[in-house]
Design goal:
233 residues; alpha/beta; TIM Barrel; eight-stranded mixed β-sheet; 8 strands; globular; binds zinc ion
């Protein structure tokens, strides 16, 4: 079982529950910490931006106070990689978030040629460039003080040994995603060999899935990397 879940979504983007339902689910799962980490503002369909983002921050603060005796509630964000060293986290509101995740998603406009090629790769219209993608994530991760690389390898390939080596230096964790498998057992072992820490995130889009680590835990167990997962009880 995990004790902290930094990757959950609500109806503010395309999830099903309210932030309070997410928090209550996290409490019933026995979690010590839960973060509401909505999609970054750059995503055309799911991005949470401007006023809504501030509303969510206020709501998270209220929930954090209301349930302080039971659980730690944090405000996260799942930023979209949009280019080489670029993501959709606006600098003026970067301080608003307690936890920052970074990942490539389909549906966020590219900020440069690298980003454009990744969007094409996701549509199977451009070859993958795993090494370059890993370096782009690292460059962006350093610049935007990212805590977690979410679902590495999803939609666009990333060279895990390169990503993990840099992640270790920057103190960024590699997520074992709870909703889908994005790293092979071999890649998880490569990550650990490179010295990176792993973290399980449920990527829950409904209260029912908060803290759900069944898929990720089994994958980590199969790969023999459980001892490198930082949020297991
Ligand atoms: Zn995601
Ligand atoms: Zn997510």
């Amino acid at each position: 079982m995990i004790n902290r879940d930094y990757h959950t979504h609500t109806f503010y983007s395309h999830g099903k529950g309210t932030p309070e339902e997410i928090v209550l689910a996290a409490i019933s799962m026995g979690l010590e910490t839960v973060a509401i980490s909505e999609h970054g503002p750059g995503h055309v369909f799911y991005g949470v931006r401007d006023k809504k983002l501030r509303m969510l921050r206020d709501e998270v603060d209220r929930l954090a106070r209301r349930y302080a005796y039971k659980i730690q509630v944090l405000m996260g964000i799942e930023c979209n990689l949009t280019g080489f060293g670029k993501c959709d986290l606006p600098e003026d509101i970067a301080d608003m978030f307690d936890v920052r995740l970074l990942a490539f998603h389909k549906g966020a406009p590219a900020a440069d040629l690298f980003g454009f090629r990744r969007n094409m790769e996701a549509l199977h219209m451009w070859p993958s460039e795993p090494e370059k993608t890993a370096l782009a994530l690292l460059e962006t991760g350093e610049k935007y003080k990212i805590d977690i690389f979410a679902h590495p390898g999803l939609y666009v390939k990333s060279h895990i040994p390169t990503l993990a080596k840099g992640a270790k230096e920057l103190g960024i964790k590699l997520e074992i995603n709870g909703a889908r498998t994005t790293m092979s057992p071999e890649q998880m072992r490569q990550a650990v060999s490179a010295g990176a820490e792993l973290i399980i995130g449920s990527d829950a889009h409904s209260p029912q899935r908060v803290g759900d680590d069944s898929l990720a835990y089994a994958a980590a167990q199969e790969a023999g990397v459980l001892s490198s997962v930082v949020n297991i009880k």
